Amino acid sequence: MRKAFSLFVLIFLSTSLFASVSYEESIEGFTELFTEVIEKNDAVAFVAMDSESNEFSNRFWSDIEYTLMNKGLLVLDRRNTGIVLEELKLQTSGIVNEKEAVSIGKAIGARHLIFGEARNMVSYFSVKLRLVDAESGRVERLKSYEIRYDDDLKRVLETPSNTEGSKKFRIGNRISYDLEFNYNTYDLKEIGLTPFYQPQSSFVPSLFIAYDMGLGISLETGFDLFLRNSIKYNETYYSRPEGDSVPQIVGFYPSLDIPLRLKYRIMDKPIDVEGFVGAYISLPTGAFMFAENYPKLFSNENTHGSVMLNENIIPGIEAGVDCNYKLGPGCLNFGFVIFYDLMPITATGDFGVLFENPNHEKKTLELLHRMGGLLHIGYSYKVD
């Protein structure tokens, strides 16, 4: 009975210690372990992967490399490392002694070396990695995983051997709440009206794609559809000195903004946080319109109160913070952006709502200088 119980405990502990993990979990597990030892300025090099599958080796090394670089570590190019070692005829198998490790480290200028072994066990892939100190030859970290044979692993094994998967691209979508503090650069006091400015808000759907350049730096672009850029000139009415009034006036136009953002990873635990700065071009997609007794609109050029936009492109600058939280197959994304147009949008028309203009003479006004902020939430995926 005691022997049976002992055997049961042994089997249970073995199962617990060597429980299988997903491909992505193994990548995260190895890199988290290595970053406990590797300093930011220390160079690390992948030396050898003893595996019977070139497809697995290429993809696995590339994903480890990408994840370490994404954490801000200095990773030596594997192709250059291989050329140097081949020229010097140094041993690069998965098993090296301390003297060989020191020689390799000196030859390629690395502070840490990574060696690996992988075996296809039919129902799972057994992978073991060693992190070696290149100055002393001492093994600093040693860990093994059993990677279960799931869809991710199947895709890795089906990747051509000359292709190094890296998942450097991220695509996703967002929905943002836009709060704008726009102002009118034209002095309406000249015509006896005192503007009243009130923050305007709307929703902004977005699509984006980001490219990870390594060392925690990435570039992002996409499309932000501002459904309503607007300015409300008065709470209820303009009051003229002579006592009469003008009904409520609201001007607005939609735009398609195309940003280019340079992002830098500030932290990666417990969530991934990126700060960024960028520039954008805003493309107005409709005419600026004044509303008298809103929502009656004036959009016909020959109608009282009609206006036409003069700008096709408006440049701007922005800054903000993005946070990514691992959720399911992708990441939950949330953050904020502050933006500022570098020039106002102008419109030409008779502006009959604002001026006593019986002859419908056209006038050009700097109607809207846009600035504000976006609070956004979305979801993104990494792709090859």
Structure description:
With 384 residues, the chain is of the alpha+beta class. 20% of the residues lie in helices and 45% in strands. An eight-stranded antiparallel barrel has the order 6-7-8-11-12-15-16-19. It has a five-stranded mixed β-sheet with strand order 2-1-3-4-5, with helices on both faces. The two termini are 54 Å apart. 31% of the residues are buried.
Order of helices and strands: HHEHEHHEEEHEEEEEEEEEEEEEE
Q: Please indicate the percent range of residues in DSSP E strands (runs of 2 or more).
A: over 45%
Number of strands: 19
- Poorly predicted runs of 5 or more residues: 8-18, 161-165, 235-241, 291-305
Number of helices: 6
The dominant shape is elongated
Class from helix and strand fractions: alpha+beta
Report the major sheet.
8 strands, antiparallel, barrel
The Cα radius of gyration reads: 31 Å
Percent of residues in helices? 10-25%
Biggest sheet strand order reads 6-7-8-11-12-15-16-19
Distance between the termini: 54 Å
Summarize model confidence as the mean pLDDT.
76
Describe the secondary-structure layout:
Layout: H1 2-17, H2 23-34, E1 43-51, H3 54-70, E2 74-75, H4 78-88, H5 98-108, E3 112-120, E4 124-133, E5 139-148, H6 151-158, E6 169-180, E7 200-214, E8 217-232, E9 238-239, E10 245-246, E11 250-267, E12 272-284, E13 289-290, E14 307-309, E15 314-327, E16 330-341, E17 345-349, E18 363-368, E19 371-383
Parallel strand pairs: 1-2, 1-3
Antiparallel strand pairs: 3-4, 4-5, 6-7, 6-19, 7-8, 8-11, 9-10, 11-12, 11-13, 12-15, 14-17, 15-16, 16-19, 17-18
Helix pairs in contact: 2-3, 3-6
